[in-house]
């Protein structure tokens, strides 16, 4: 006959439940795996599977009653750590999409904005295109597998119940947040420079021929030149985007 004490039962629950919260929090925030198109049941089932399979690899967990004050504090801490890890990766995707937003604004495509159902925000066609390309590159470098290995390895560096010093995580998020604007500008800079030259040429033409309607002529020219610039820079965008995505996934190990 098997008997369980309350302390042993609390230990078994803590060994699975607390790591599951960190994994689930990261799964809900991280790009691709946390997409709205993926049902919540699939995310929960995947988090349970990762927690069960990685339980033997985790360091010895401390036991704390889940329904106690210490258990509630541990639950909040694990959710914050997991969400922070997923948020660092999402910031890079936000920078790439912001670069497409800036490029679309310069091309005049901001008038054709629509609600993206995956994020619930108002995006342009160029921003969505850059986001889709980033997702495909992310999957091509096995970024989803790097995310899973990163959250499992995080229990070696930040064990459950021992992550009181969250200064390193907050500093990493701040550094990644500061990269959003630099990433967006570096991606959209060729298109901005090209369209700046076009606008200068249109301004000179309006001075030479005042009867020319710059607004009627400039919009299709800016749109056509912008699309050609996007087409020409596509072969050169794969490498910087790949480097950015690799940096975002390696940030999990540096946390």
Report the principal-axis shape: elongated
Task: Give unreliable regions as ranges.
Answer: none
DSSP strand tally? 2
Q: What is the H-and-E element order?
A: HHHEEHHHH
Largest sheet geometry: 2 strands, antiparallel
Question: Rg, please?
Answer: 24 Å
Per DSSP, the total helix count is: 7
Helix content: over 70%
Q: Report the sheet-strand fraction.
A: under 5%
Structural class: mainly alpha
In spatial order, strands of the major sheet run: 1-2
What's the rounded overall pLDDT mean? 76
First-last Cα distance:
45 Å
Supply the key terms.
255 residues; 2 strands; single chain; mainly alpha
Describe this structure in words.
- The protein has 7 helices and 2 strands; from the N terminus they run H-H-H-E-E-H-H-H-H.
- The radius of gyration is 24 Å and the shape is elongated.
- The protein has about 260 residues and is an all-alpha fold.
- Helix 3 packs across helix 4 and helix 3 packs parallel to helix 6 (about 165-210).
- The longest helix is centred in the last third of the chain and has 42 residues, at about 165-210.
- Strand 1 (about 115) and strand 2 (about 120-125) form a beta hairpin.
Helix and strand arrangement:
Blueprint: H1 6-29, H2 40-54, H3 69-107, E1 114-115, E2 122-123, H4 125-140, H5 143-157, H6 167-208, H7 214-254
Antiparallel strand pairs: 1-2
């Amino acid at each position: 006959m098997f008997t369980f004490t309350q302390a042993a039962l609390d230990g078994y629950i803590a060994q699975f439940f607390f790591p599951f919260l960190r994994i689930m929090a990261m799964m809900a925030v991280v790009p691709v795996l946390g997409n709205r198109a993926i049902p919540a049941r699939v995310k929960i089932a995947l988090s349970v599977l990762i927690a069960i399979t990685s339980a033997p690899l985790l360091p010895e967990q401390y036991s704390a009653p889940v329904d106690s004050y210490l258990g509630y504090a541990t639950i909040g801490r694990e959710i914050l750590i997991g969400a922070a890890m997923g948020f660092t990766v999402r910031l890079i995707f936000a920078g790439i999409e912001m670069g497409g937003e800036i490029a679309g604004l310069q091309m005049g495509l901001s008038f054709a904005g629509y609600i993206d159902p995956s994020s619930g925000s108002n995006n342009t066609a160029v921003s969505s295109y850059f986001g889709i390309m980033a997702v495909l590159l992310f999957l091509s470098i096995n970024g989803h597998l790097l995310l899973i290995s990163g959250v499992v390895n995080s229990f070696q560096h930040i064990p459950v119940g021992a992550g009181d010093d969250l200064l390193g995580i907050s500093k990493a998020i701040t550094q990644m947040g500061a990269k959003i604007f630099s990433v967006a500008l570096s991606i959209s800079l060729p298109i901005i420079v090209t369209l700046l030259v076009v606008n200068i040429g249109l301004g000179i033409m309006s001075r030479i021929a005042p009867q020319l309607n710059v607004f009627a002529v400039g919009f299709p020219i800016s749109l056509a030149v912008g699309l050609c610039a996007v087409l020409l820079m596509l072969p050169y965008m794969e490498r910087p985007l790949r480097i950015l995505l690799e940096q975002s996934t390696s940030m999990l190990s540096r946390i």
